[in-house]
Amino acid sequence: MTDPRWLDGSRDPVAAELRRALDEAKQRASDDVALRRIWGKVAYVEPEVRHPRWFWFAGGVACSAMLTMLVVMLWPRSTGID
Q1: 3-class DSSP state of 41
Q2: What is the mean pLDDT of residues 10-33?
């Protein structure tokens, strides 16, 4: 954290209020509820999404069909010039 000494002896009312707020914050203990919320968010792990097996099978079939169509379309055809 930055060094708050730059606030010492300042004539600016905003800086003086900030200095008082920082001093008050140092004296307070950690709030148990706030700590639980923070650690709850840190410890939360998004559940892994698993697709059923048929999903992978259907994807494989679709890829195979597309590859077959591509090969059939690009296969050289005879021009009839012999």
Answers
A1: helix
A2: 77
